Amino acid sequence: MQNDYWQRQASNKPLFPDLLWSRPENRAHAGKLFIAGGNKYSFSAAANAYGEAVATGIGVARALLPDSLQKTVGKVFEAGEYAPSTPSGSFAQTALSEFLGMSQWADATLLAGDFGRNSETAILLEKFAEKYDGLLTITQDAADYFIPAPAGLLMRRETLLVISFAQLQKLAMNAKFTTAFTFDMDFLHLIDALHEFTQVHEAFIVTKHLDTIFVAANGQVTSTRLSNDMTIWRVMTAAHAVVWWLQNSTKPLEALTTAISQIKKDPEGS
User: What string of DSSP letters covers 226-264?
Assistant: First the structure.
């Protein structure tokens, strides 16, 4: 018997088609998005997120990178803006003012990933999540900074985590969630666990298990089985999701689920 908190979306048919007709027709009304990511050795997460957000229909997007990238990336990724970096090339704590300034301009923020592993960056992201009270989407290795001590983030309102199943396992374990997320759990038990998890935590979850994307928000769950030519995942999914969410902020489950239905394919990578 199908649970009343679970709905299945076909890969070729949106579950909530009304949202397709209610999108802003003018980019001036389509929202502003702040994207942050990158370290000295990679900026692909921020750049890909920017491109996908623009393609998805965001009104205006701004991307913030560590200034360790400015000399090498400045002419390649003209949309990039820069904030202070550590000697190793990741975002420094002193970049907090740039993060807060751009987030105040925006309607939503996406921490897109490629942050690397750095203790200063960890402090920066923690302080930013505490001070910022808008729509916050976190994916790729940005989520890893919060997983060891997730309580504050999980109880933060208007937070979306687009995470791998392995990240979800660690997140739930560190949050002392009573049900274990295991790779061998069956479909219905996974839905039940996501239902329970998002009943007790404010944060929304998007995760992928086998060939299915799951969206969980406020105890409600949707599943979308991927078609054979789709390998969508974190950065692309997060970029689409945050655009649909900020344009339909009062309907998070519907917006995130519709975003999944509109992604046609994903390049290799995370």
Answer: PPTT----HHHHHHHHHHHHHHTTT-HHHHHHHHHHT--
Q: In what order do the strands lie in the sheet with 212-217?
A: 6-9, 220-225, 212-217, 204-209, 159-164, 135-139, 108-113, 32-37, 60-66, 80-83
CA 259 to chain CA mean position, Å = 12
Average the pLDDT over 80-95 and give the result.
Answer: 96
Which residue's structure tokens are 């690397």?
A: 116
Query: Bridge partners of 110?
Result: 35, 137
- pTM more than 0.85: yes
| CA–CA dist 238, 206 (Å, integer) | 9
Q: Which domains does the chain have, with CATH numbers?
A: 6-261 (3.40.1190.20)
133-189 tens-digit pLDDT:
999 999 999 999 999 999 999 999 999 999 999 999 999 999 999 999 999 999 999
Give residue 43's region: left, alpha or beta (phi > 0; psi -120 to 50).
Answer: alpha
